[in-house]
Inverse folding.
């Protein structure tokens, strides 16, 4: 199969064009060894041939400095063993900013690979009164040129003409090899002048919208409203979506139960695999909702403005504005939050954001907090009846996680992840209406990535946990009690370690199972208390109250606020950082912090 | 491998020859004010990145809107808009457009 690479500067509409050409025939993966995403897709031509399209990262030049540029450079020159050298290149440039974008044309055309220069955003160029002589530009570059609008699906047939070989090729031309940016820009300016390029007038609507969104008073207010709206919506959909997915898994689980005979295999299928997979899928609607928001904010151009407004606040923690969206989304779930750190170019800032994201109070902590708070804190109101003691406790826990995140960021940024004054540069794209096609494809992408990545790990862990909770090492001839199971044995083994925190072996098993996902402790305790004759008659709240002192309860809350009990997060950090070193470090740090925090809390309160 | 004409060569050119207004850090441009970029005093990688975004010596730069408190600020340059932190904009020096156009406003 022949391979075609798509390349262009950031904000040239490269990905929109890639989506337009390949539609649903796409695959996302990482380039092996690095965390740069590789999008590939297939294009069917009219003559029946199928081409493979590679969407390369957005770059301004081919000098290999960043990881993105290295990848683009290596793929285009055929230096990567895993990707064939492209047979043709589609170079996507923004026609409204031709002078600057043409700078990339010189190094790309110098590669000697058949290249179509695509001038995107034809609609913007036209509407804002810009124009150019396409034939003259093609003659100047010695390469065919097409003026298209990927968003409006305009002029795309020219790209197919090029790919099938039906497009007339201009006389090839020797281009100067320019390593120096000012010289490159001069050359680009000369070429666009000879092509009678008339730059469009500045985008009127962008200026108008910016005077609102970057207004000294209205700007931050709108920003807050957007933040709260995103946060709230993710919270609102959490419960119904959880119920819907639970229901779905309950119904299918019952069906499986009716088909598979009772016994070990049914228990493995239902309690192990079904519930395990279900516990991950439950998060999918929230993840998609979050990416829908991020997609709209990013495609419309608002995200760049939000990053500018948030930058100063983030700078106080040693981070930058681009860390803000990932940290906000970590309140829903750290997994998509860590995936969305890809927008941060500075590697050290990105790493710091990944490492502190799990401190933000994610939705999986809510069930645990709710249970303990309801069991131990009386429903008293103060300040009239506005704030109840329970709400205050909950807010306190949110604050605790946030403070831990900021403090950790400061420590990291002033030590191992200190980045020597990298300049914060953020291009402000013109505002555009997001297209459903682009956002829909992105959501589909994310669902696939999410289900595949987290699903495989979760599946493995739940099966292992199920085996541990059901396996009985010593048979006494009577029905196995949970204490005799491997999990029970382990619970008793670790009891000395957790006793100083005020936890008994049952809480200990809960802590172990919650390594997979925090809320697992609820289900685990439910089962243990139900099996145990002492607490058989009690409901969960009473049983917990019976089992923990107030000091132990606070210790448990503190432990959950700090500990990294989430196998999906560990797996995602492993994927995104490319090594086990960072998740291991993060897990150790958060566990130590959780243990010490719980120890202090227990001894202060008792 | 890469040559920088931004910070090294141009910066050493004798400044303020003749009646031209003297150089000021780009960060001192107020909203709506324009100047011609003279030099970039930043590490090579950052300077190159800025130049790729349009901040080339000799290019006209206009200060635009900013986040509350004036940091970061958006600058219009070479057909695009780029936000820079104050600490970065301080390292770029510009020759403000004719002193007459620079309205004699008092500093706030």
């Amino acid at each position: 199969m022949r391979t075609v690479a798509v390349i262009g500067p950031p904000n040239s509409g490269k990905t929109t064009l890639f989506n337009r050409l390949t539609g649903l025939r796409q695959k996302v993966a990482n380039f092996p060894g690095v965390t740069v995403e590789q999008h590939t897709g297939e294009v069917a031509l009219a003559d029946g041939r199928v081409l493979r399209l590679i969407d390369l990262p957005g770059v301004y030049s081919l000098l290999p400095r960043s990881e993105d540029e290295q990848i683009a450079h290596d793929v285009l020159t055929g230096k990567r063993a895993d990707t064939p050298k492209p047979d043709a290149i589609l170079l996507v440039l923004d026609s409204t900013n031709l002078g600057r974008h043409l700078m990339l044309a010189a190094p790309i055309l110098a590669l000697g690979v058949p290249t179509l220069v695509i001038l995107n955003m034809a609609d913007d160029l036209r509407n804002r009164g810009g124009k150019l002589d396409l034939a003259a530009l093609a003659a100047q570059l010695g390469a065919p040129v097409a003026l298209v609008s990927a968003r409006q699906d305009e002029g795309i047939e020219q790209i197919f003409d090029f790919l099938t070989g039906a497009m007339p090729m201009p006389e090839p031309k020797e281009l100067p090899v320019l390593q120096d940016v000012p010289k490159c820009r001069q050359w680009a300016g000369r070429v666009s002048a000879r092509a009678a390029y008339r730059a469009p007038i500045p985008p009127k609507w962008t200026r108008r919208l910016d005077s609102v969104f970057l207004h000294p008073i209205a700007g931050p207010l709108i920003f807050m409203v957007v933040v709260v709206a995103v946060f709230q919506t993710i919270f609102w959909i959490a419960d119904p979506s959880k119920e819907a997915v639970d229901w779905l898994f309950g119904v299918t689980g019952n069906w499986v139960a009716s088909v598979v005979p009772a016994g070990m295999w049914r228990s493995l299928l239902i309690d192990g695999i079904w519930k395990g997979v279900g516990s991950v899928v439950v998060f999918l609607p929230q993840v998609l909702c979050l990416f829908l928001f991020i997609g709209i904010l990013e495609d419309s151009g608002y995200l760049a403005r939000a990053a500018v407004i948030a930058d100063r606040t983030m700078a106080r923690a040693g981070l930058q504005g681009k860390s803000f969206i990932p940290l906000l989304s970590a309140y829903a779930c750290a997994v998509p939050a860590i995936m969305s750190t890809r927008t941060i170019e500075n590697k050290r800032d990105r790493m710091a954001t990944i490492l502190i994201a799990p401190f933000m109070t994610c939705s999986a902590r809510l069930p645990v907090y709710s249970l303990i708070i309801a069991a131990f804190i009386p429903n008293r109101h103060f300040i009239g009846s506005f704030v109840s003691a329970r709400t205050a406790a909950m807010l306190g826990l949110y604050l605790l996680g946030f403070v831990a995140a900021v403090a950790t960021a400061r420590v990291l940024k002033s030590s191992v992840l200190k980045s020597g004054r990298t300049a914060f540069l953020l291009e402000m794209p013109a505002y555009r209406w997001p297209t459903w096609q682009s956002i829909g494809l992105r959501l589909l992408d994310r669902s696939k990535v999410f289900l595949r990545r987290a699903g495989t790990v979760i599946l493995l862990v739940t099966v292992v946990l199920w085996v541990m909770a059901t396996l009985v090492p010593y048979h006494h001839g009577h029905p196995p009690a949970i204490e005799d199971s491997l999990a029970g044995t382990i619970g008793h083994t670790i009891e000395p370690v957790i006793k100083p925190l005020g936890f008994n072996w049952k809480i200990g098993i809960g802590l172990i199972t919650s390594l997979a996902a925090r809320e697992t402790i609820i289900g685990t305790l439910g089962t243990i208390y139900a099996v145990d004759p002492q607490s058989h008659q009690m409901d969960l709240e009473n049983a917990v109250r019976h089992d923990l002192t107030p000091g132990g309860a606070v210790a448990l809350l503190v432990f959950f606020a700090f500990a990294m009990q989430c196998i999906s997060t560990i797996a995602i950090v492993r994927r995104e950082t490319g090594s086990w070193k960072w998740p291991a470090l993060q897990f150790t740090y958060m566990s130590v912090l959780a243990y010490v925090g719980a120890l202090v809390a227990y001894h202060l309160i008792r | 491998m890469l040559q920088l004409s931004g910070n090294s060569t141009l910066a050493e050119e004798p400044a303020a020859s003749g009646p031209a207004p003297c150089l000021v850090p780009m960060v001192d441009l107020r909203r709506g004010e324009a100047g011609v970029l003279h030099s970039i005093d930043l590490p090579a990688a950052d300077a190159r990145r800025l130049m790729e975004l349009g901040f080339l010596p000799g290019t006209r730069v206009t200060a635009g809107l900013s986040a509350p408190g004036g940091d970061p600020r958006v600058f219009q340059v070479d057909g695009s808009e780029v936000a820079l932190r104050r600490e970065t904009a301080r390292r770029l020096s510009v020759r403000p457009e004719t002193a007459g156009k620079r309205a004699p406003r008092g500093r706030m």
Summary: Residues 315 and 321 of chain A are 7 Å apart (CA to CA). Chain A touches chain B at residues 60-61, 63, 65, 96-97, 99-100, 103, 179-182, 185, 199, 202, 210-211, 214-217, 219-220, 304, 307-309, 311-312, 315, 321, 420-428 (CB under 8 Å).
